[in-house]
Amino acid sequence: MIRTLRASLALAVALSLTTSSFALAVGLPHLPKFGAEAQAAPQKLAPGEWPQAHSDVPADPDIRFGSLPNGMRFAIRRQTIPAGEAALRLRFDAGSLMETDAQQGLAHFLEHMAFNGSKAVPEGEMVKILERLGLAFGADTNAQTGFDQTVYKLDLPKTDEDTVDTSLKLLREAASELTIAQAAVDRERGVILSEERASDSPAYRVYKSRLEYLLAGQRMPDREPIGKVDIIQKAPADLIADFYRHYYRPERATIVAVGDFDPAAMEAKIRARFGDWKANGPAGPEPDLGKIKPRKTDARLLVEPGAPLGLQVTWVRPPDLRPDRLAKRRSDVVEGLGFAVLNRRLSALSRSPHPPFIAAGAFKTDQGHSAEVTMLNLIAQPDGWREALASVDQEERRAVQYGVRQDELDREIAEVRASAQAAVAGAATRRPAQIADEIVGSVGDQEVVTNPAEDLAFFEATVKGLKADAVSSALKASFAGEGPLVFMSSPKPVPGGEQAILSEYASTQKVAVAAPAAPHEVVWPYASFGTPGKVVETKEVADLDTVFVRFENGVRLTVKPTKFRDDEVLVRVNIGNGLQDLPKDRQSLAWFGNAFTEGGLKQIDNEDTERVLADKVYGARFAVGEDAFVLSGSTRTGDLPTEMQVLTAYVADPGWRTEAFKRQQTAGKTVHEQMEGTDGGVMSRELSGLLHGGDRRFTFPSRDDIAKAQPADLEAQVAPHLAKDPLEVVIVGDITVDKAVDAVARTFGSLPARQTPAPVPAGQRLVPFPAATAQPVDLTHKGRTDQAIGYVAWPTNDLWANPQQALETDILGEVLGLRLIDELREAQGVTYSPSVSYAHSLTWTGWGYLAASVEVPPAKLGGFYNDVAKIAADLRTKDVTPDELARAKKPRIDRLERSRVTNQYWLSELSGAQAEPRKLDFIRHIIPGTEQVTAADVKHAAELVLKDNKAFKLEVKPEK
After folding, report:
1. Cβ–Cβ under 8 Å, residues 344 and 415
2. Strands 371-380 and 73-78: what pairing?
3. What is the mean predicted confidence (pLDDT) over 173-199?
């Protein structure tokens, strides 16, 4: 869809508009025409009508659009890759904006009730029915409520008649047949209150405060989808049913079906299932979203401990609600290119030797059809906001006054073109869920759904002969409207408060700006690494369609050609032994890994690399893995040579620029305060170190560790391994073996000889699991007093100790998860999402675990530990039922089968397989081994693992 061509603003959106999982109004925006006169209201489509009826934009011809006599719309598309999969979406024009004052939060509450009983499906049975079909709760069965929509999602692992018919039946039940019983409503209150608690973070509070400030007096800030706690606690069932009758109506519904099926047959099924649906009672009114108020330059300060310092300068205008037409899309593209240039300049400032901010971006977006905003956004250190504000303001005014240069514009055109070309090449192998979500995303904005080929053709026509002056004019026109409004969120008070912010903004506005400097000439210096390496050994693993190659210099290459995604190639480079090579008693600097790639290359920095390779698709990421130092990237088939050149250059000639390390160090100054603002933040900081017995390779760096770290320390930990350690390249995707071998021969194969692999000392592979605790280890957070997490973990073993037993323990974990959901969510209603996790290390001798966790109020923690103990005892002493075993195994097996038709799966699983051939055996065994797990096996696993005297307990509670 054309909205993907606006993705140059994605980083800015992500930086500035953090929302909760409920507030779906902010995403990759539809960027309206700048300077256009906004309409008072969007064009109202007739029941059953699609936007293309009033547009000159050609709709995707591969999608079957239509409607039923009752007004319900449908969109159906056949997608045969992956074979046998499908995605169903049922969308309602019904969200929190439609709620009355007394119903705040009930649109979301109703979404929950869709899983809690209907005329044909008793309460508690819907999820179980889907599990029997292989759909995992949460992963494949989900729903979301936003400001203006509610969407139900089913990702089907199979498209047999039973799976499709049952899924359509359940969606039909949700549409009109819900019982919404009072007892079921009462049981669900605690689940929703848990969701509200978990969402209420410093970032969410900043988001809410900013939205209220920007849209003052309008409806949207007063209708957060999660609603009001007192209403959630007390609302009667009939108030939820009232919303249901008024807004779950066929004329407000759209069903989307994408997958491996016959479109005509799917249409017939939809017509048969939904054709008799009739609305019950009068329709609900459309909400009055309110109007933008006249406002002058103003400032708002929010002091929010635990949040980073963020500052936004925003111009607010009435929303642009014109229909989706080609002329509007052309202006969108032109405008978006202007913002891309401005964001590129801001990115360069953030990478400078003395950056004035941590990150910054600029964009324009629609806010829930309530307003159109242009925003400058930045994140800075709390004491550096003045310099940051001045820098971003002056860069914006430089762009407005002097415009963009033609060379800058051409660069952005090249990048967007490369992305659009990649989208076209991969269009035939997009996943059904991706396509379905794109179609659903277009409905609320009344946009015409297009395909990647049309998007590329439209983009090329738009940019043909496009001059910088036109882009400059569009960018300049965007910085207009009410305000500008300056919003700052700070973790600590700001001397002088809002007046100081206004004064600083007024002061920086008086500073004259100069024209941007012209770029210097640059060429890519890593096109050759010398004489291509020679292949000395080739082995074929026929049953896995994989080839192992060894070069004369010791570099190993693993290649798996696939057709899972057209024009997608994934690359992973494993060097040395990763964490196994680092000392156990010294803090790992893996946290600073991003500074390695941001440090660029010795002969060219990142800014120039991105400029000279603007027409290429490539990536470069660095991480310290458990068993290797890892460089990775994704590319398209034709750009594999460039991808290999980039990754090889990082191994052979890294830049180690100090400023990149210092930038990450600066960002880390407040990371502890941010983590301490929520129970989940504290858990994510502490858990890895605790589960690995305090081994410093796994602990999160302390404030002191971050402050005292030096760039030379990171170089000392990594550089020796890059220079000489054994090196393995794994390439998976749309590539031939010959082309992969040639690309590696000309890059990594040309490097000096690598060391021969040597065994890791046994002591380096030993990592302790924490001892059992009679009482939970106590951690504290600084967030809400009703937020707490309970956690319990039992030691298991590494994978290689007994692979089949590991699979049996995995199914035990799945059963434990089902039991916790049944008890804590369905029966007690005390939490939104109890979770179970498990792992069996391929690296650390004897290390593995099975764990359960829950988010509850502090007073409920004791009950959680008691419930877990009771469930564990039951699993140790009784066989699970055949139905429970099936509901645990089938979703897991289906997930495994689906993952095996992705390049990501094979990149991970084949990594290290040349040195550890047992990996190949386990790849072959994992599905049949899971299929053969019996109830007796689960009971035996529980007897081995779920021992009370082995349980490590941990809780995160609010500070007293």
Report:
1. no
2. unpaired
3. 96
